[in-house]
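Appendix C reproduces, verbatim, an entry submitted by the partner laboratory led by Prof. M.T., so that reviewers can inspect both the input and the predicted structure.
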Amino acid sequence: MSKSPFLQSVESFMRVRQYSRRTITSYLYWIKYFIIFNNKQHPSKLGDADIERFQPI
């Protein structure tokens, strides 16, 4: 299964900055889960309210 261009760019960003493989895997998992939680909307279209709904305090 191929990743979205967005997730590929996030992974590339982290690899260039030498994040550990486990960190990259974890970040990509949570980003993907956040996108799915918000009905597959691009993160640039989401705001603070969406983040708070995803991760209530």
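Residues 21-37 form the longest helix (17 residues). Additional entries are available on request from the coordinating office.
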